[in-house]
Design a protein that fits this description.
The chain is α+β, with helices and mostly antiparallel strands. It has one domain (12-147). The chain has helices at residues 12-56, 61-67, 77-89, 128-133; strands at 97-102, 113-122, 138-147. Strands 1-2-3 form a three-stranded antiparallel β-sheet. α1 (12-56) crosses α3. The longest helix is centred in the N-terminal third of the chain and has 45 residues, at 12-56. It starts with 11 loop residues before the first helix and ends with a strand.
Length: 151
């Protein structure tokens, strides 16, 4: 005998509701994570900008005494790295960043421009524990440059 319409479908809507709620929850967590990563990147970029400005003012004294100051402050890569590391060491780390350091590539390409690369580990709400449990982390690297020209 054929079944009456709707019989045997009990509980079918529950599966759909659970599926839709799971998708909505995943989307919400994804948006939270992406926003947190972007905010962490902005905070790292702010620190890199400040460190680059500080490094651009670090004069390579031996160059000044040998050749003088022409149109800009003479820099060395070692001086840029040291000034950037000192600036970062004296600055309070943002709460979203668990660690940060000066990354490779920091220095001066032309003896006048300070290029600072900062690499940090970001703490992401809700998913950081899951990422750490699998042995991963969210690493963000930013780069900033500054130049002290003399007019």
């Amino acid at each position: 005998m054929p079944e009456a319409m709707g019989e045997g479908d009990e509980g079918g809507i529950s599966v759909l509701v659970i599926g839709m709620m799971s998708i909505a929850l995943l989307l919400i967590v994804g948006v939270i994570a992406a926003t947190s990563i972007q905010l962490s990147r902005i905070q790292l970029l702010d620190a890199a900008d400040a460190a680059a400005l500080d490094a651009a003012d670090s004069v390579a004294e031996e160059s000044v005494y040998r050749g003088g100051v022409e149109d800009g402050v003479p820099l060395t890569s070692q001086g840029v790295v040291a000034a950037a590391a000192e600036h970062l060491g004296g600055r309070q780390r943002p709460s979203r960043i668990t660690s940060w350091a000066i990354a490779s590539g920091t220095g001066t390409p032309d003896g006048r421009t300070a290029v600072v690369r900062v690499q940090g580990q970001a703490a992401i709400p809700v998913i950081s524990q899951a990422i750490t449990a699998f042995g991963g982390s969210v690493t963000i690297t930013v780069e900033s440059s500054a130049r002290s020209d003399l007019d």
